[in-house]
Specification:
CATH class of the largest domain: Alpha Beta
Number of domains: 3
Strand order of the largest sheet: 12-15-14-13-16-17
Subcellular location: Cytoplasm
Low-confidence stretches: none
Distance between the termini: 55 Å
Keywords: ATP-binding, Cytoplasm, Nucleotide-binding, RNA-binding, Transferase, tRNA processing, tRNA-binding
Domain tRNA-specific 2-thiouridylase MnmA-like C-terminal: 279-352
Radius of gyration: 22 Å
CATH superfamily of the largest domain: HUPs
CATH architecture of the largest domain: 3-Layer(aba) Sandwich
Largest sheet: 6 strands, antiparallel, barrel
EC number: 2.8.1.13
Number of helices: 7
Pfam families: tRNA_Me_trans (PF03054), tRNA_Me_trans_C (PF20258), tRNA_Me_trans_M (PF20259)
CATH topology of the largest domain: Rossmann fold
Shape: globular
């Protein structure tokens, strides 16, 4: 009798990883679930305690072994420190991308391999395919839930050892499976936002760790319109919470730029204001999942999660990489991840400079 392949499943306490456990068992794998503890819960905002209770409930129901592993130190060193450093520079980082890169598909993968696992598995809406010994990352089948954006800085070698059981399903199908098994997570709402911030006020959280210096809000001509509460509290393209109204045409203002030297927040009035739009931008720290492409590279880009794919060309000019868009875009934000696609294949990503 052939021995079952051993899979270590990263289980979050949500419906997606719960159904991933079901599908793995149905496929004949020897499944062990691991709950990753990445953040201390002494502040009352983290939902780790409640999530772990759901993991225990689902694993008990499915007769799956489970345990917890603590990655709090790795998370603070690799993800949270990066998060704070980027905000200090006036940029807007994506810690979820870094969490996948450094924790789930590095620290957790290494941990699982120490247990002689054949694979790790995750509840992400993504897929992989193997062509001539190379592993490629594909978008999840459910376009509305596709999470390949967050996996755009994960190595091909790690993806080769990873299973994404729900990647071929629509979200509604996943919930139907959970209901069929009467799982406690069947109707649990999807988690949103950054795990260590939870439901609390984002700016108040930042103020606990970073020094805030108020300054002037100015328009593109340098006219002073008001006072900002600290540049780190604003992101490019932001409309709400700027605190300016009843000025000029009466149209809403948007954050257009930040001047760190002058500590000024630069805003522009009107959705169609041309200074809000760019047809090219630089990227740095390029990361290619499977192979380095040749340049210029024709591809689609996604400048943030939930953004539409946009046609573009990535060109190399000396040591600089520029994304030249087919159509100008608003809200191109330094620190965010720009992900490159060709069809359903996720090629990799760069950080918007």
């Amino acid at each position: 009798m052939q021995e079952k392949k051993k899979v270590i499943l990263g289980m979050s306490g949500g419906v997606d990883s719960s159904v991933a456990a079901i599908l793995l068992k149905e496929a004949g794998y020897d499944v062990t679930a691991v709950f990753m503890r990445n953040w201390a819960e002494d502040d009352g905002a983290c939902t780790a305690r409640e999530d772990y209770i759901d993991v225990v409930s689902v694993c008990s129901q499915l007769d799956i072994k489970y345990f917890t592993v603590n990655f709090e130190k790795e998370y603070r060193d690799q993800v949270f420190s990066y998060f704070l450093d980027e905000y200090k520079k006036g940029r807007t980082p994506n810690p979820d991308v870094m969490c996948n890169t450094e924790i789930k598909f590095k620290a957790f993968l290494d941990y699982a391999m120490d247990f002689d696992a054949d694979y790790i598995a995750m509840g992400h809406y993504a897929r992989t395919k193997n062509v001539d010994g190379k592993t490629y990352l594909l978008k999840g089948l459910d376009e509305n839930k596709d999470q390949s954006y967050f996996l755009s800085r994960v190595k091909s070698e790690a993806l080769a050892k990873t299973l994404f059981p729900v990647g071929n399903l629509e979200k509604e199908e996943v919930r139907e499976i959970a209901k069929k098994y009467n799982l406690s997570t069947a109707n649990k709402k999807d988690s949103t936002g950054i795990c260590f911030i939870g439901e609390r006020d984002f700016n108040e959280f930042l103020d606990q760790f970073l020094f805030t210096k108020p300054g002037e809000i100015v328009d593109e001509k340098g006219n002073v319109l008001g006072e900002h509460s600290g540049l780190m509290h604003y992101t490019i393209g932001q409309r709400r919470g700027i605190g300016i109204g009843g000025v000029g045409s009466g149209e809403p203002f948007f954050v257009a730029d930040k001047d760190l030297k002058k500590n000024q927040l630069i805003v522009a009035q009107g959705l169609n204001n041309p200074i809000l739009y760019k047809d090219e931008f630089e990227v740095e720290d390029l990361f290619w999942i499977t192979e380095v492409p040749s340049f210029p590279l024709k591809a689609c880009v996604k400048i943030r999660y939930r953004a539409r794919d946009e046609g573009a060309e990535l060109v190399k000019e000396n040591d600089t990489y520029k994304v030249k868009l087919d159509n100008p875009l608003k809200g191109i934000t330094p620190g965010q991840v720009c992900v490159f696609y060709q069809g359903e294949i996720c090629l990799g990503s760069g950080i918007i400079k």
